[in-house]
Specification:
Layout (H helix, E strand, L loop, with lengths): L14 E4 L6 E2 L13 E3 L3 E6 L5 E7 L4 E2 L7 E4 L3 E6 L6 E6 L3 E6 L14 E4 L5 E6 L6 E6 L4 E5 L4 E6 L7 E6 L6 E5 L3 E6 L4 E7 L9 E4 L5 E6 L5 E6 L9 E4 L7 E6 L4 E6 L4 E7 L6 E8 L6 E4 L11 E8 L3 E8 L7 H12 L6 H10 L1
Parallel strand pairs: 2-6
Antiparallel strand pairs: 1-30, 2-30, 3-4, 4-5, 5-7, 8-9, 9-10, 10-11, 12-13, 13-14, 14-15, 16-17, 17-18, 18-19, 20-21, 21-22, 22-23, 24-25, 25-26, 26-27, 28-29, 29-30
Helix pairs in contact: 1-2
Length: 386
Amino acid sequence: MSRRVVRQSKFRHVFGQAGKAEQTYEDIRVSKVTWDSSFCAVNPKFLAIIVEAGGGGAFMVLPLAKTGRVDKNHPTVNGHTGPVLDIDWCPHNDSVIASASEDTTVMVWQIPDYTPVRNITEPIVTLEGHSKRVGILSWHPTARNVLLSAGGDNVIIIWNVGTGEMLLSLDDTHPDVIHSVCWNTNGSLLCTTCKDKTLRVIDPRKGQVVAERFAAHEGMRPMRAVFTRQGHIFTTGFTRMSQRELGLWDPNNFEEPMALQEMDTSNGVLLPFYDPDSSIVYLCGKGDSSIRYFEITEEPPFVHYLNTFSSKEPQRGMGFMPKRGLDVSKCEIARFYKLHERKCEPIIMTVPRKTCSRMTCTLTRQALSLPWKQMSGCRARMQTLC
């Protein structure tokens, strides 16, 4: 009997490639705030980057097609009185973006399609409810005008952006600083990680914790978590010996992990970016110069290492393009926007396409020059060769 040695996968040969020099955005003063955020958000129309600003906080919004050197006087969005810690584009409107700041407020902005002459200083709505800095933002994946924010006051607030009112406040759920918050696919559940080393699954409609796991990763450094398409939870964290670690968990059975793998001894927090269409998770470490990616399947060992994209310079942050902004004609399955100290460059993830033989191309040309009735034989030969 023959035994399969190599695991079958459509994404086993995914490879990354940095964009060309003319595709980069240069001369950008990326923020130096010490906060474990991606500092970058992107959609099919705009690229937003948190930048250095005097006397408050600001971020810059660039049209995606406006590559090259950025004018030092390019207008910014600067309504906050403290440094901006997180930004997130609305998934239902490509011109709406939310920003969170150390000044305890969340602001929602309307970005015009044209390049403004002056700085944008007037938000659509200002959301006030946190007592300490706000460091996490996340739009609801299916409900319009619903925004989640989490702050240093250990409180999660869900807002109705249309009216500016607070829909829900989770005050007593977390005893310490919240490190990450993620919605599931349809927005019915929340997954959070906290400084108390507990991984929680929360039903926002009931306002209560429905499942929790203490010490999913035993280290004290920050942990991150995302929901997968199957409803499982993928986590990144640290071991007791400060080694970076990844895990996969079933919320219905938190006793034992489905998968747990040690990686390396770097100090950077691993930011997971999950693609539900291909079920690939990309791990981008703050301060790393590489992107590792894994495929999550329903068969053991569940998490399969695919490859690593490596470059020479470390990343300050990373933006992840939604699927509708990709160029599928070039077999593109993911695109990142990597922040350097003074520039931003795209990194394109591609699946190689099978190429037909030269004989097939010759037969194709012959078939195109033949009448319709005579093409059936050529089509049959082409299918056999392919």
